Amino acid sequence: MGQDIDIDLTREGALAEADLPLAAAKLARMSTSEVTSTLWRCSLKRSAVLFRLLSKERALEVFERFEPAHQADLVRALRDEDVTGLFAGLDPDDRVSLLDEVPAVLAKRLLSDLTPHERALTTLMLGYPARSVGRRMSPEYVRAHPEFTAGRVLETVRHRATEAETIYMIPVTDGQKRLVGVVSLREILAAPEDARVSDLMQTPELATVSDDAEQVARRCSEANLLAMPIVDSEKRLVGILTIDDAHQILRDAEDEDIARAGGAEPLRRPYLSTSAFKIARARVVWLLVLAVSALLTVQVLGIFEATLEQKVVLALFIPLLTGTGGNTGSQAATTITRALAMGEVTSKDVGRVLLREFRVGTTLGLLLGILGFTLASLVYDVPTGLVIGSTLLCVCAMAATVGGAMPLIAKAIRVDPAVFSTPFITTFCDATGLLIYFSLAKVILGI
């Protein structure tokens, strides 16, 4: 079997029948992380072939580590019998994420293959709003009653340990299943067997099932909780959000913001297994928006065509000024978007943010303006240098102020700041920057 060392599992092309035993042997010697990474780098067709070579237990472990979008692609590439077993083995919250990515016909078939109990849990979570924590929580948990003893709680934990999402944080509920507290497994283990849960429990940090998942995940992470109880409008316990799920929600949100800040939609699947058409589709919307916005810049240039003819050198500085304005606005927008995500500012702070960003932009513009004035004066003449310097000052102040305001405005109108800010700032700063530039040039140069 030493020959299997030479097989390249990620190589493009079909696997010959003789290669399959070698590939299976190599996969068997790899860790789960290594197998996941290998399949992540393969084309979708090759990934499906290698996936079938894994044992049932290993296949489920690897499948759970994939993004929901990639899971959906893999489900379409696998045989029906492979898919049924995989789907049934997932936790309810993972099933919901996968069902959001597959066609409705396939989703209905996958649900019909579940046991009545698992189908009920999954269907219940599907009924919550798309971005709510109810779609990301786990309905499988261990709970206790205030009158339980520590010994009885330990018996319950032993009985439910394999099916519960976590056993380290135990919600405490009354007879109507209303949350009244939480107790940690450490406290249960350290207490005498006859100690009452009511004497050990603490006031819970909780969230409502309809709350935004990202906000709840951030609260869970910042409070260093192992899990957070999730309740309905009547404070009845419906699930828990574990810290690993909270971190995954935050990672997904960060990936989305980074992609959109770069003018694209997140792929949510491996690059090498994503078709060129899907990659293009993730980018084309933003390119179209920016292309249309560029027409406004062209219109501004047309208005000042006579000014350019009298002072052709002004055209040389257009890329510098528009680029500086766009970059300054993007920096401000990125800073405020992060501050919003971290809860450092809210939409009510728009006045304070505008004033602060205006001061920051003015400071940056003053520094860049002095540099621009000096260089343009040395290379061309002092009036030209004065135009460049004053324009940089005005553009930076304007761009920073607008860039700081956009995420707050987006939040106020319930639009993703990362989606709204980038195209608007690019369009606004380019067009407005040119208006400022040519207006100052006409006044200073007298043209």
UniProtKB/TrEMBL annotation:
The keyword Protein biosynthesis does not apply. Keywords: CBS domain, Cell membrane, Magnesium, Membrane, Metal-binding, Transmembrane, Transmembrane helix, Transport. It is found in: Cell membrane; Membrane. The keyword Cell division does not apply. This is Magnesium transporter MgtE. It comes from Mycetocola lacteus. Acts as a magnesium transporter. Its main location: membrane.
